[in-house]
Amino acid sequence: MIGSLPSAHVFxxxxxxxxxLAALALLFLCVGLAPNCRVHAQVDRSGERLTYAxxxxxxxxxxxxxxxxxxxxxxxxxxxxxxxxxxxxxxxxGHIPRGFSFSPDVARLYVANTWDDTISVIDTASxxxxxxxxxxxxxxxxxxxxxxxxLFVTNRISNDVAVLxxxxxxxxxxxxxxxxxxxxxxxPDGSRLYVxxxxxxxxxxxxxxxxxxxxIDTWRAMVTERxxxxxxxxxxxxxxxxxxxxxxxxxxxxxxxxxxxxxxHGGAFADTLQLFGVDIGPAPIEVxxxxxxxxxxxxxxxxIAPDKSRLYVxDGGSENVTVIxxxxxxxxxxxxxxxxxxxxxxxxxxVITRITVGNDPRGVAFTPDSAKLLVANRLSDTLxxxxxxxxxxxxxxxxxxxxxxxxxxxxxxxxxxARYSFQGQIGCANCHIDSTFDGLTWDLEPDGFGRDIxxxxxxxxxxxxxxxxxxxxxxxxxxxxxPRTEKYFWRSENYDDLTLTDLVTYVxxxxxxxxxxxxxxxxxxxxxxxxxALFERAQDKFGNPIPQANRCSYCHNxxxxxxxxxxxxxxxxxxxxxxxxxxxxxxxxxxSAPYLHDGxxxxxxQIWTIFNPEDKHGRTNDLTKDELNDLIQYLRxx
Amino acid sequence: MKKTNSAILVAVFLLAGSMLPTAPRxxxxxxxxxxxxxxxVRAPSATPQMPRFxxxxxxxxxxxxDNHVYSVLVDGDRIWVGTDNGLGLYDNGKWKTFTxxxxxxxxxxLSLALDKRTGDVWAGTMGGLSRVxxxxxxxxxxxxxxxxxxxxxxxxIEGENVWVATAAGACRLNLATSEWSLYNERxxxxxxxxxYGVSAAADKVYYAVWGSGLLEYNxxxxxxxxxxxxxxxxxxxxxxxxxxxxxxxxxxxxxxNVVWAATYFGDSRYDGRYWHNFLTKDSGLPSNFTNVVKxxxxxxxxxxxxxxxxxxxxTNWAVYRPSLSTGKPEMTVRDAQxxxxxxxxxxxxxxxxxxxxxxxxxxxxxxxxxxxxxGVLQH
Lengths: 638, 379
Fold this sequence. Notes:
The complex is a heterodimer.
Chain A: H1 13-33, E1 41-43, E2 49-51, E3 55-60, E4 66-71, E5 76-81, E6 87-92, E7 97-102, E8 108-113, E9 118-123, E10 128-134, E11 139-144, E12 150-155, E13 160-165, E14 171-176, E15 181-186, E16 192-197, E17 210-217, E18 222-230, E19 234-240, E20 247-254, E21 269-277, E22 281-288, E23 299-304, E24 310-315, E25 320-325, H2 326-335, E26 351-356, E27 361-366, E28 372-377, E29 382-387, E30 392-398, H3 407-416, H4 428-431, E31 441-443, E32 453-455, H5 477-490, H6 497-509, H7 526-536, H8 552-555, E33 566-568, E34 580-582, H9 604-609, H10 625-635
Antiparallel strand pairs in A: 1-2, 3-4, 4-5, 5-6, 7-8, 8-9, 9-10, 11-12, 12-13, 13-14, 15-16, 16-17, 17-18, 19-20, 20-21, 21-22, 23-24, 24-25, 25-26, 27-28, 28-29, 29-30, 31-32, 33-34
Helix pairs in contact in A: 1-6, 3-6, 5-6, 7-10
Chain B: H1 3-19, E1 53-58, E2 69-75, E3 78-83, E4 86-91, E5 94-98, E6 109-114, E7 121-125, E8 128-133, E9 136-140, E10 152-158, E11 161-166, E12 169-174, E13 179-183, E14 195-200, E15 204-209, E16 214-218, E17 223-227, E18 249-255, E19 258-263, E20 266-270, E21 275-278, E22 290-295, E23 301-305, E24 308-312, E25 317-322, E26 329-334, E27 340-343, E28 354-360, E29 363-368, E30 371-377
Antiparallel strand pairs in B: 1-30, 2-3, 3-4, 4-5, 6-7, 7-8, 8-9, 10-11, 11-12, 12-13, 14-15, 15-16, 16-17, 18-19, 19-20, 20-21, 22-23, 23-24, 24-25, 25-26, 26-27, 28-29, 29-30
């Protein structure tokens, strides 16, 4: 099972063109017939439907005989024999699992299924799913407390932590977390849980991004503290030293308040760690991972050696693992005055090496003796085995699955890698977190510095929503993802035609996430029904006809909620070059705050309570507050 | 009651602290919170044995954010106070103040509620509704959310629901779905939409509505009902104990299947079948002008009036206040026969204009127009 990464260059050019076109045709047929088909059931260049494992997290059984691998792409937990890395069993769980953990007695394995909104409970003796418990919206990770009383589940969409009865799965309560609550880590003594978030907390327009580490008292099951992460938009895994004195979180620090002009002039992100705990002091300290020409794009998971000598970070976009000398790191932060999060010279003080692994490395796990560190390469379907003495990849374990690289798979690899940008700084996934959005506004260069501040729009179910960009300037995805991205974002090499085609195919294939406000049978609640009537109305409350272009349903028409035309809805700012704006689609609109082209509306309500004084963005000023609430309830179902 | 009269009374409510004279302040040093129950702790014999307290008073002189204290909330060992100039937190003998700079919706905090499951504190302000959770403040306004109005007079938590009383109707935020439901004259029997107080429980939710009596929402049937003054909108009491004493309802407290309702013209108790009205002329209430009522159980309640703090134990009454004439601490007890006895005391609430009440074991915390008072039960 020890093998190498599949090659992306096994086809002749002609064969690639033909098979790509064939695959595209099949893909669009698939999308047309079954819009909810799973994104990870991919079409090979030969037309065969392929399902990749896409490993994201790993756990060793305490005695070290089994390795549990959470496979997001195949909706499985694969159980491997650690002696041979042969598969003992593949356990099917819910759709798109993203996190898992053992119960304290290791009798159970809990799996968070993001698109099913469920927790799968696996009996580790029988390796069977013995229960499936409903939770909140997009559960992403799960942890049971040491007492076995509560199960804590991070809900990415509902921005909370569900507290379940660990024995019955019954929801006891929900704790308010930050936006995009995703990763949850217990302190070594189990008394606290630490939650990070993949989206920034709501903030004023063009405010500095703010995120937090939500700290939960596990005994009381209450939030006791929120460690502020200033300037941070996206947080990922946390790890603690065995003595509990050092906590480390992987974070993304966007530079979205300055023009995104030249990667060579400072970059768009700082890839950083947040250090906190007794070793650090009362406030967290942010340290950079990046170094000139050696960026650590999209840090994700962290492992700290039991002897507290080394710290390992997976860098998804850079496809490597950064190794840090912890004593040197602590010495650095104790002898230098922050901030130094964007100092490209800093990491040389504590980074030992950067180890190349597979595509989009995610979760990490030490072998029980800590001699090896395993890395889950999500988009390679492999596990890299790093020798922690030599800091070299000793072996690569290939998971069972397709060896061929499908169009979609290659497109997804292209989406998540940073290799195409100048010095490998960023990739598409930097701003489209897990293929979604980032909750930020950006100042992009093509429109002029300080001009046309734009909100980052989601990219779900894009087919039929072109043109792209808020000014509608890009007629199709090849233009959006190709020349525009290459010229203004990457500042580096162009994609070759086939890579661009694969990337576009991948982006175009992204389905919409399940809508959490729409009932399973499609029926609308009375409030949503009233809202739909308002959305479609042709007369205002005084009986006056509403001009066609001033009805919600005129511009936001069709299944995606866009006429694909541009209108001036009265939201132009002094810094905008034009008031004409592309009509955004309404797909899962409830999730993608902030709103309007420049992100000036932090909530859906503000679109009409603040930014529609002259009824240019639909006739709404005749509505009562209850009616506006109804309209918003309907919009949330889109 | 015409709306102009109502507006005058509201102005009295909000500006009382600045208009009323300053009461003498007793010792301000805080003590650790006591625990227990007022049952069995009695005043000297010959009069009904009513609880006696040593009142420790807080003003700006010893850390209170502002002397105008609209609301008080006991959160274990911590005390939250809503003042005219910020949300105060008294913890471990120290005061911390939250203001709009910290994200609070408005400096004037009119109402407070604790979500006992999560520990989150909800603050109704003159400029929206704020949630304080783990030190972070999230604010909901009529512009950024479905909240019906920014003037939030009352808030109450029940399960996943936050029930809100505003100057333009009632509303409910479901925390699980983020859905706001608005209740007003269009979908309830509410004649006026000036909603002053709310008390929510798993079975029923009660709203005190200014000029529109008491509104009841049955959580099981999802049906609204309304309780009015059988005398109509008058200050006359033609039908005593036949219903709510007056339409100008200011506060409601629902527990043990009993509703306690306060108005500016007397108070009421309703057990689901029978009403009982309380007026100064035939009870121990120091004033019919009642800002707040808070039930202890089905038979006992505390009343905050413009002329002092009153306790009703089901039979007898006790009033605690600084003397209206001399400012000296006084406590009076009224027995079932109407006999009133003065009980010598050395401390009293910091002002006679009482705006809010909460319990900490056997202790009581009192928000007044001039300071916060901690009544420590005397054994």
